[in-house]
Amino acid sequence: MSVRRRAEPQAPRQAAASFVARSAERRRLKSGIHATGLTAGLPAGDLEQFENVVFARRVLRAGERLFGPGDKCNCIYSIHSGLFKTTFADGNGREQVTGFFMPDELLGMDGLGNGCYTVSAMALVDSNVWAMPHGVIQSMAREVPSLHHRLLSALGNEIARNQVAMMMLGTMGARERLVDFLLNVSRRFLSRGYSGVAFRLCMTRSEIGSYLGLSLETVSRHFSALDREGLIEVRQREISILDVQGLERIVGSCRASPGKHADPFACMSPSGR
Asked: What are phi and psi for residue 225, nearest 5 degrees?
């Protein structure tokens, strides 16, 4: 896959600010089921009987936690605007980043099994979410087969993402992991109508390293190497991709083929985006 450079892309900082602001504005006045990312692509008439169902919107500041491990799973959250990370801590307090989530993607699916969340979800920037009580969603799913299928697909995507992420850690070197991460971020911005070649990474180098199973020093070293080689331009957290095809060649056959495996970095929306 190649990502084409758009004419006169926004500066990375402006693009990031626009991404957060425009995603909020897009559904600013809505609060029902159609305002969430859960219904994208469903037949228009399937949810008419639930037009009066209203979900609460929760606003979080950067660094604020949405939920933590052990918290009772009362809601599934659909991201309305902003960016989130999820983390898991072992018994010794060591924490690992398990995912990065964008608007229209779901948080809290891990809590559906035993009724408690297993990870912590934290806003990386000022964000807001729709809080969807899972009892309400389950009742709606029983009435609407297409919504039931969407929920099953979301769960299946989460399982597949975790499996492929494990494969990635065992088969990709540090350089390939970082390149694949950058290409995925590029694709996800592009799919939402923003520049795929100029963007701001809202996560720290340490958080990226935690997610990829790499040290901070290794991540920083490979960012610098990619910059020196003219593949990307790095200005702190602002990234410009200069040679998409060159990055694709680095990843090569290490990356799972689209359509055959889940993308190890994609925190997939129910629509599979």
From this structure: -65, -45
Percent of the chain at pLDDT exceeding 90: 48
Q: Where are the alpha helices (DSSP H) in the chain?
A: 12-26, 134-143, 145-171, 174-191, 205-212, 216-228, 244-251
**DSSP reduced 3-state for 264:** coil
Domain with CATH 2.60.120.10 in the chain: 17-167
Residue 14 Cα distances to 17, 168, 194, angstroms: 5, 32, 11
Angle at the Cα of 20 from the Cα atoms of 17 and 22, rounded to 5 degrees: 100
The CATH number given to 17-167 is: 2.60.120.10
pLDDT tens for 166-209 read 777 788 999 999 999 999 899 989 988 889 999 999 999 999 99
Q: Where in the chain is the domain with CATH 1.10.10.10?
A: 170-254
Q: What kind of architecture, by CATH, is found in domain 170-254?
A: Orthogonal Bundle (1.10)
Phi and psi for 138 in degrees, rounded to 5?
-65, -40
pTM (2 d.p.): 0.79
